[in-house]
C-alpha cells in the first residue's frame, strides 16, 4: 500500500482507541477487489475493545461538549483542510480497498469533506427556541444538547463519506464518536483518524474499531453509555441493530437499502433519458443505495429506449480503478459477482429478455460486466431486491397510475427519479411517490446541504442539512418558573 502514497503514514494497520494506536492478538486481511491481493491487515478487535472505546469516548464527552461551538468548529475545519490536502492519497487508498475509479474516489473525498465544513458552520447556529408562555411568572425555553457517545457503523461502498457525514454532525454538536467501518474498507477510516489526530482532536473524541461487525456492533448496541447509533448498510443488518438498541433505548439513525424507480415520462427525449438512466444505474458499479434499480419506460418508446440505453451502456469501461480511462470498477467481493449472476439467471428464467451485455472481456473474477435486462416484472428478484450490482432492469408501462403503482411496489423508500417535462404529470408523481428523496431531471441529488434519508424499510432520520443534528442531539425543554 505505502508505495502508492505520497504520505505513507496515512496507512495505519492499527485501530485507534483513546488516542492510542492499538493492535490485537489476531489480524484480518484487507483485499484489493480489483486483483484479489491482500493489501494489508487490521486488528481483529473484540467486545472488550469496544467497551474501552466507549470508556474513552464517555470520558472525553463532557470536556468536548463543554467547548465553545467555535472551538469545535475550528478543529473540524482543520481536519477538513488536512483531508483536502491529502485528497490524492486518500482517493488512492480508497481505490485500493474499494475498487471504484480514481476519479470517483476523488469526488467522494470532496463530498465527504464538504460535510465537515457544513457542520462546522452549522454548529455555530444550533439554536434553541424561546416559547411564548402559558404559565404565569415562567420563562419557557428549549436548549439543544448533544446526545452523548455516538456509535457510527458504516459500509464499504462509500468508505470515506459515510463516516464524515455522520462524524461531522455528531462531533460538531458535541458528541464523541466510536466508528466501526466495514471490514472491507478500514484503511479509509483509519486514515481519517490519523488526520484527526494531526488536526488536534484530543484522545477519546474520535475512536475507530476494526474487526467483526456483529461482535463489535452488539457490544456498542448493548452499552448504555452509547446514546446514539447511526448506521448505514443493508436493511437486514439495520433491523438487527434496531432490535439490539431496544434494550438501551438509543436514538437510532438508519440509512438502509434502496430500490429506486427511474421513471421516464412520454415527453422526455429518449437519448437524454437513456444517458441519465445509465449514469444513475452504474455509479459505483451499481453498489449504491441511490442506484436506479427499476427503470420504467412508456410502452410507446420502449424499444427505442432500450436501444439508446444499450448504446450508452457500451461506453462504460470496466477495469482497475487506478487505470486511466476506467469508468467502472470491480464489485466488492466474488460473492457480490455471484449474486449478480443469480439475479440475472432468476430474471431470465422468469421471462426477462437479455437485451445487451458488455462486449469487453471480463477483467477479473471480482468483476461483473454491465447487463441490460428488458421485460422485467415484479415477480423477479431484480425488481424486488436492492440489486447492488451493474444489472439494469427495464420495464414498460402504459399510464401514470400504473407507473406510480409499480414505483411504489417495494418495501424500500429511499430515492426516486423522474425524467420528463409536463408538470401536470410530474406533480402527481412527486406527491404520490413513497420515497424520502425524489430527483426530477437530475441524476445528482446528494450534498452536504440536503436532508438525505429514506422512509419505509429504507430507514429513519436524515443526514446532512439543517436536520443533520437531530439524530445526535436532544431538545431539553426548560420551564424557568417563580419569576
Ligand atoms: P453491506 O451490504 O454494505 O455490506 P452490511 O449491512 O452487511 O452492508 O454492513 C454494513 C456495516 O454493518 C459494516 O460496517 C458491517 O461490518 C456492519 N455489520 C454487518 N453485520 C452486522 C451485525 N450483525 N451487527 C452489527 N454490524 C454489522
UniProtKB/TrEMBL annotation:
Residues 21-477 form the Aldehyde dehydrogenase domain. Keywords: Oxidoreductase. The active site is at 255. Pfam families: Aldedh. PROSITE patterns: ALDEHYDE_DEHYDR_CYS, ALDEHYDE_DEHYDR_GLU. GO terms for molecular function: oxidoreductase activity. Signal peptide: none annotated. It comes from the Bacteria. Its EC number is 1.2.1.-. Belongs to the aldehyde dehydrogenase family. This is NAD-dependent succinate-semialdehyde dehydrogenase. It comes from Oceanimonas smirnovii.
